[in-house]
Amino acid sequence: MTASSYTGRFAPSPTGLLHFGSLTAALASYLDARAVSGRWLVRIEDMDPPREQPGASELILKALEIYGLHWDGDVLYQHTRHEAYREALDQLAKAELAYPCTCTRKELVDYLPSYPGFCRSHKGTPDKPHAIRMNGQDQLISLNDRIQQNQTFDMQELGDFVILRKDGLFAYQLAVTVDDEWQGITDIVRGVDLLNSTPRQICLQQALGFNTPRYAHLPVITNEQGEKLSKQTYAEPLPFKNPEPVMLQAMSALGLPVDHHLKGSSLTEMLTWAVKNWDIKKLCNIRDIPQASIPGLY
Description:
Blueprint: E1 7-10, H1 20-34, E2 39-44, H2 56-66, E3 76-77, H3 82-94, E4 98-101, H4 105-108, E5 131-134, E6 140-145, E7 149-154, H5 155-158, E8 161-164, H6 172-182, E9 187-191, H7 197-208, E10 214-218, E11 220-222, H8 244-253, H9 267-277, E12 288-290
Parallel strand pairs: 1-2, 2-3, 9-10, 11-12
Antiparallel strand pairs: 4-5, 5-8, 6-7
């Protein structure tokens, strides 16, 4: 892929601060873009105000800057994109690929995480609270992932998914798909925990006539209990002081041949070296990496 044709992105949600796992994902996305002199964008996915942490957006961007991960262009905030999401929703409705769903969680508890399609025949606007679901048409979605290799997903098993929530908020799958197309994203490098989101997004891309990016789903960093490092598992926020040793550990987690020759280097020197030595193939078919297994050099 030529430099001019590669556009990657890192898209955190401001429900908490960046931690070591999210740094590793951001770094992989950044290196994959810079290794071919491509563009690397940052998007703040602030679509769920009830779950957002005050000031998190600013602190996420500050962390990226402190760790030397400088992005191209302006940061895109999803809260500014509601009109575009509404247009996509209307397009799907006109194509009879989106429908209102009045099902409650209690009614679906025996079927989750799939959705049995109870409301597929619904038309018009119900007179009670409802979400809008995308009809996945029970199709098979195939994906040649750059890390996880060939994958096939059965949309009947995954079920029709929500694209507009009952509370009126646009759902993650729709917003991400619309913004990836609008920003011209060609390559998505993100955690394998989002692998099941990819067929849903491909389903939307096909229905909306969008391009499908290349995907690479990274191994996730896990804690001592084998859980993914996340806000929900109380992962420690990234330190803002002395970022160099943390960056070296993130590079090591991504299979870069980090050694003591980098000790004492600046972040700029580390990242320049990492771009030259980046090889995503070293992560192939790995699903998780225990944080305790990542060597420290300091």
